[in-house]
Amino acid sequence: QVQLVESGGGLVQAGGSLRLSCAASGNIFKSNTMGWYRQAPGKQRELVASISSGGSIKYAESVKGRFTISRDNAKNTVYLQMNSLKPEDTVVYYCNLHIAAFGSDYWGQGTQVTVSS
User: Fold this and answer.
1) Is residue 116 packed enough to be buried (19+ CB in 10 Å), middle (13-18) or exposed (0-12)?
2) Is the pLDDT of residue 52 over 90?
3) What is the pLDDT of residue 30?
4) Taking 90 as the threshold, does the pLDDT of residue 13 lie above it?
5) Residues 58-92: tens digit of each pLDDT
6) Closest CA to 25 of 95, 103, 117
7) Long-range contacts from 88-91, C-beta under 8 angstroms, 24+ separation
8) Using CA atoms, how far apart are residues 73 and 80, in angstroms rounded to an integer?
9) In principle, which of 4, 6, 80, 97 could form an S-S bond with 111, CB 3.0–4.6 Å?
10) In the predicted model, is pLDDT for residue 31 greater than 90?
11) Which residues of 54-93 are buried (b: 16+ CB within 10 A; e: fewer)?
């Protein structure tokens, strides 16, 4: 069983910053990818950023240069530093743990980010 616990969402003004954290626990395979997705009402969940246990990183085009993903493998924790936030970043963010060897995906409960204009 894998659990993902997210923290760090909230309300911020446009141009401000927030830092999301997600701690994983349980049967975590050493080789995995952790990431953040977001989903607006009525839309598909989309990748924001991901980072593998080996350090490979992907970003959505819309967040490049503004968001930075990092991880602490010793703590099984992934972080998303979000700078220069825009009102269009307002949405629920979900932490994801992907274990390619088993084709498994695990999700956090979601954390709301609201950016006021």
Assistant:
1) exposed
2) yes
3) 82
4) yes
5) 999 999 999 999 999 999 999 999 999 999 999 99
6) 95
7) 88/115, 89/63, 89/113, 89/115, 90/114, 90/115, 91/38, 91/39, 91/40
8) 15
9) 6
10) no
11) eeeeebeeebeeebbbebeeeebbbbbebeebeeebbbbb
Mean pLDDT of 103-110: 95
Measured distance CA(111)–CA(103) in Å, rounded: 25
Q: Which residues contact 33 (CB under 8 A, 6 or more apart)?
A: 50, 51, 52, 53, 56, 96, 97, 98, 100
Residue 27: pLDDT band with limits 50, 70, 90: confident
**Residue with the two structure tokens 């980072």:** 51
